[in-house]
Design goal:
By secondary structure, the protein is mainly α. It is built from six helices and no strands. It has a domain of about 190 residues. It is globular.
């Protein structure tokens, strides 16, 4: 037993030494000038990928708007022809059918996850990253604090400014997360061609964490902003630094609107990941 433990310890030491050597090789290969170029490339990748994701979001919102307009028109036509009671019954049947469909799809997805254990690991990374990002952004279960409320560092007068309490904060954090992932890819690309297979797993884990981080961050931002809107109350603490007068209802609508847009962005990211799976 002791000899086996010693052999395993030696293998781990050799692995750690190899990984350290390959990492040092990549850093040395980049050099000072090369590292600056890598930063620029990573920044470009982050900006372009963020732009592409928002273009896809705009396309999806446009298609959804068209479908919603058609659905409203069709609903009005059916109500006029068959009456409201018939449509309520039809809607109830659709909800029941939808719930059953979700159950079937969930069962299929679970079966696929069980059969694909390796993919399940990366899915777990995405889920954990999403949860962590959600709570860091939303501010916890009470939705107080979190990334948006970091503006309190500048004092109460800066609290709820139009940058930290809007989708602009989400865009900035998204670019940062994509930049970090792109920088990891740059480092891996400069490693030896015969690098250890573990680095491929590192690349996939990084992508999974990036995806989960972006989704969780936008969901957390959405929850925080919608809570700040206080739609069920008569008022909320308004935005600061708005260059024109705005009624309280306008402030509440702005908070809620940015929250809904953040949620739509998260849903779009989930759809993109599902389509690419």
């Amino acid at each position: 037993m002791s000899e086996r433990a010693d052999a395993l310890f030696i293998v781990r030491i050799e692995l750690a030494t190899r990984l350290k050597s390959e990492l040092a090789f990549a850093v040395e290969r980049l050099g000072a000038g090369g590292f600056s170029d890598a930063l620029l490339r990573a920044t470009k990748v982050a900006a372009v990928d963020t732009w592409k994701s928002k273009r896809i979001l705009a396309q999806r919102v446009g298609r959804a708007s068209v479908r919603a307009t058609r659905a409203i028109g069709a609903l009005a036509s059916r109500v006029g022809e068959f009456g409201i009671a018939s449509e309520v019954e039809r809607a109830r049947d659709a909800v029941v059918s939808g719930i059953k469909g979700v159950g079937r799809r969930s069962g299929t997805a679970f079966g696929n996850a069980v059969r694909q254990r390796r993919e399940k690991r990366f899915g777990l990374v995405t889920l954990i990253a999403a949860w962590v990002a959600f709570f860091l952004t939303a501010g916890g279960a009470d939705l107080q604090g979190g990334a948006p409320d970091l503006d309190l560092i500048g004092g109460p007068g800066d609290h709820r400014n139009v940058f930290t309490h809007s989708v602009l904060l989400g865009l900035t954090l998204e670019v940062f997360l994509r930049f970090c992932a792109a920088l990891v890819r740059e480092l891996l690309d400069h490693m030896p061609e015969d690098r250890h297979p573990v680095w491929s797993s590192v690349a996939r884990f990084t992508e999974a964490a990036k995806t989960g981080g972006i989704i969780g961050m936008y969901l957390g931002l959405s929850a925080h902003l919608i809570d700040d809107a206080n739609l069920l109350g008569g008022a909320t603490k308004p935005y600061v630094g708005v260059p024109f007068p705005m009624p309280m209802a306008g402030h509440q609508a702005a908070f809620a609107g940015n929250g809904v847009l953040s949620a739509a962005t998260a849903v779009s990211e989930i759809a993109t990941r599902t389509e690419g799976a």
